[in-house]
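Page 47, continued from p. 46.
Same chain as before, 130 aa.
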Amino acid sequence: MPHTFLSDDWFDEVEKLRDEAPEPPPAMADLTLNIVVTGGPDGDREIHTKGGQFERGLVDDAPTKLTVPYDVAKAIFIDGNQQAGMQAFMSGQIKVEGDMTKLMAMQSGGAGGPSEAQKAFQEKLRAITA
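Result:
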């Protein structure tokens, strides 16, 4: 049964899939980002990514913090639409605080696109997301 993106039920389902997650691209392996997702059905959510994995809450050691609208976050992280992220950034919808080079490294780390394992895992995330 699909769950609302970033809801507690959604995170519970994501945690069940952790063992199946492929290795992150090298640029993301050591990357920690704080992300505030605004305007979602459950209100604003604070999350972070560490080693390519979503986690609840913000962490103190993240060098970069993004503030992203809910629909853009879903397009990027669930639909894999990096173009939506770039358009939102260029139009000022995404705010970046801290070390911008970390964000650029993540963007360039995706050169060549996602691997087959990453695409398959993204399909699993789509399947649990309403």
